[in-house]
Amino acid sequence: MRTGMLALIAGLLSLRGLGELPPLGWLLPLLVVALMLLPYRLYWLGLFILGFCWSVLLAHGVLADRLDPALDGRTLWVEGQVSGLPERREGLLSFQLENATTRRASLPTTLRLSWRDAPEVRAGERWRLAVKLRRPVGMSNPQGFDYEAWLTAQGIGALGSVKAGQRLSAVPLAGWREQLRQSLLSHAATGREGAVAALVLGDDSGLSEADWQVLQATGTVHLLVISGQHVMLLAALVYALIAGLARLGWWPTGWPWLGLACLCAWLAALGYGVLAGLEVPVQRALVMLALILLWRWRFRQLRVWDGWLLAMLLVLLWQPLASLQAGFWLSFGAVGWLIWGLAGRLGGYSFWQLLWRPQWLLTLGLLPVLLVLGLPQSLSAPLANLLAVPWVSFVSVPLALLGTLCLPVPLLGEGLLWLAGASLHGLFWLLQVISGWIAPWYAPSVSGWAVLLALLGVACVSLPGGLPVRLPGALLCLPLLWPPTTLSPVGQAQVWLLDVGQGLAVLVRTREHALLYDAGPAVPGFDSGARIVLPSLRYLGVRQFDQLLLSHADRDHIGGAQALLDAFPVKKVVSGEPSQLPVSWGAQRCQTRQWRWDAVQFSQWQWAAGEGNSASCVLLIEAAGERLLLTGDMDSAAEQQWLKVHPGIRVDWLLAPHHGSRTSSSPAFVAATRPRHVLVARGRYNPFDHPHAEVLARYREAGAKVHDTAQQGAIRIELGAQRPALHWRQQGGFWQEK
User: Fold this and answer.
1) For residue 428, what pLDDT is reported?
2) Secondary structure letter of residue 252 according to DSSP
3) Residue 669: CB partners within 8 Å, gap ≥ 6?
4) What's the pLDDT at 485?
5) 633, 9, 707: which is closest to 312 by C-alpha?
6) In which element (H, E) is residue 556 found?
7) What is the CATH T-level fold of the domain 493-731, as seen in this structure?
8) In a 10 Å sphere around its CB, with 0-12 CB exposed, 13-18 middle and 19+ buried, how is residue 653 labelled?
9) How far is residue 267's CA from residue 242's CA, in Å, rounded to a whole number?
10) What mean pLDDT comes out for the span 528-547?
11) Minimal CA–CA distance to 726: which of 443, 498, 444?
12) How would you describe this protein's topology in the membrane (predicted)?
């Protein structure tokens, strides 16, 4: 039985590693082969193929439900019903629209919409909306949150921005979670009402960016979103209540207390899961809880690993695309390591061992998982969880749930919710203090073999004391601490043009030095410096900068700088407009100068009379005879001045000035530089029509190949090696639009 479950799970999980989905025509022959294998000893291979085919079939269905490319960028009037809980952050409302229809075309089943300065929108309401639709495409970089994977796993077939709307009707019962959220936010008024809503409803929209940073730094994110721990806790409380009544003789004699205790505990957990939206960790917990209660009631032969495997199998059969979400791996990984480290041991654990051992097991066991997912490893997690887990489990959650149940009772429900909010306020204060003691560890990219060795190593270390394999297991984890570095040879430079949307961020690394040209944009609710540039730089192994060069002071070029200055030591900050930057950055004015790093030549230039875009600091890099010109937002006037200083010079790689704007890339500039390759940094749906069609035609007529971050994601160039550029989107999974 266990072999069959493992084979089926492996087939379902294999979807996660596919770069492209196999054609649907392949599935029928594969199914025939699988059915032929089932009666024989190779039945496990047949089950693997069945799991693979099922996951691929559903993935094809999700991709087929995406927005028609012909409707990409068009504005249509659509009608549909709001589902889930709308989220409002810094004036931007985000919500999902189900079963949307329009007169002109068929639409995906689920749309995710955003609405700036929107009116009140509640779950269950039907709206008629003017929406500019776009395909569900995110940014593609070496590291960072994979928005496209998340959209695919959620079954979202299109994104859209609302221009206008009209409420048509409301379905009261459909919006019961929204009504409950409003009650929680209005009654738990301690400044932590958003955290109370997160505990009760799984709605994290009330948590600020600073809250998330504290939770991530201390490894306690699982405590403020609905997880299996919360569901198990409520079930345990209900079971203990009925068992206690039976033990005291207060339970009706004609009622079988054990069976009813198991049933009521599971129903309470199910109710909590429905309240929280039945996310993957809750689904896993409900299945495992059902097996535990069945074991307690009748089936003592069930083993704990069987419950873990069955829970994973049922979740994947129901949602094969769940494996695209980090929460799936963290949830099942955490429970799996606890089972491995705690179950089946001879003798018992003391009270202190039961408190401390799970924390270090999770910290050690989840290390390889966090590295693969690109998430930070919290070194303070054991201490933080040792204090926070019992506090949330036995104080905050019971107060929040009891207060929610007692809301109809005047003053009682409000008082309990206020106490829940106060307990969370104290918890965040404590976590903030702990996060200041030990910073989280961000590891650079590691090879697959190093991760596999680490998994084997932590499995050995987690074994009982006295076994001789624990020390060798610890040694197997060492490659994670000293990952191999891929340094450019002397005389070459590695250049990364990151995909930051409508903005610019370029990393230039020689063998011993690193320079960042611009830092990406920042808008209310999204800082690309913190969300995109910083994770990518850490993944690439950057630890400090010799120079941060901010071409000029426009927000799309400097927005992410503060996050980077807070995270990295920076020896020098240079800008074309230093007076427009915060004084604390200590920016120096861009001056015409040249220098060499590791046999790579750098030439910096600025038009002294320029202002705004024309004041952009321009950087020319030459490695082994191959040239790259980074132009910022300089306009045609600045281009002419640059040509006067650099007559007759041609470049191999050219960053299109001002994102390919019509006011730049003048015919004289293109003819003089004669680039072989042109790099366009821009957002796919930017409102400025960048790059302009005339500009693209001009470059193509000159024989240049265009590389576009909006179409190809981040772009890597090995300057001086005379090699083709690498497009990061081509390295992505099947869910990324190629």
Assistant:
1) 87
2) -
3) 636, 639, 640, 642, 643, 657
4) 66
5) 9
6) helix 555-558
7) Metallo-beta-lactamase; Chain A (3.60.15)
8) buried
9) 14
10) 90
11) 498
12) Multi-pass membrane protein
pTM, two decimals, is 0.86
Question: Residues in the chain, how many?
Answer: 738
Residue showing tokens 């281009």: 639
Long-range contacts of 454-462, Cβ-Cβ distance < 8 Å, separation of 24 or more = 454/367, 454/368, 454/371, 454/479, 454/480, 455/368, 458/337, 458/364, 458/365, 458/367, 458/368, 459/340, 461/364, 462/337, 462/340, 462/341, 462/361, 462/364, 462/365
Question: What whole-number distance in Å separates Cα of residue 111 and Cα of residue 638?
Answer: 44
Task: Specify burial of residue 661 (Cβ count, 10 A radius: 0-12, 13-18, 19+).
Answer: buried
Residue 412: other Cβ atoms inside 10 A = 14
User: Would the CA dihedral through 135, 124, 209, 561 be positive or negative?
Assistant: positive
Spatial distance between the Cα atoms of 533 and 550, rounded to a whole number of angstroms: 14
Topology annotation, domain 69-170 = OB fold (Dihydrolipoamide Acetyltransferase, E2P) (2.40.50)
For the chain, the maximum distance between any two Cα atoms, rounded to a whole number of angstroms, is 100
The pLDDT tens digits of the residues spanning 446-457 come to 777 777 887 787
CA distances from 353 to 318, 357, 366, 473 (A): 37, 5, 19, 22
Cα–Cα distance, 502 to 393 (Å, whole number): 43
Say which residues have a Cβ less than 8 Å from residue 733's Cβ, sequence separation at least 6.
16, 17, 18, 19, 149, 324
| pLDDT tens string 29-48 | 999 999 899 888 889 999 99
Cα distance between residue 232 and residue 148, in whole Å: 32
Distances, alpha carbon 235 to alpha carbons 242, 292, 320, 325, 358, in Å: 11, 11, 27, 26, 20
Please state, in angstroms and rounded to a whole number, the distance separating the CA atoms of residues 89 and 209.
10
* Dihedral sign of CA atoms 292, 294, 295, 296 in order: positive
Query: Do 493-731 and 69-170 fall under one CATH topology?
Result: no
Quick one: pLDDT at residue 177? 72
Residue 694's Cβ-count burial label (10 Å; 0-12, 13-18, 19+) is exposed
* Of the listed ranges 119-123, 575-579, 663-667, the one predicted with least confidence: 119-123
Calpha distance 223→221 (Å, rounded) = 5
Mean per-residue pLDDT for 138-149? 89
- Whether omega for the bond prior to residue 691 falls within 30 degrees of 0, making it cis, is yes
Q: What is the DSSP letter of 71?
A: G
pLDDT digits (tens, 9 = 90+) for 263-291: 888 888 888 877 777 776 777 778 777 77
- Is the pLDDT confidence value at 491 over 70? yes
Q: List 162's β-bridge partners, or say none.
A: 131
Strands in 493-497's sheet, in edge-to-edge order, are 588-589, 573-575, 547-550, 514-517, 506-509, 493-497, 715-719, 726-727
* Two tokens, residue 653: 């790689």
Q: Give the pair of three-digit tokens for residue 54.
A: 């099922």
Judge whether residue 308 has pLDDT over 90: no
Which has the higher per-residue pLDDT, 706 or 221?
706
Average of per-residue pLDDT across 381-399: 83
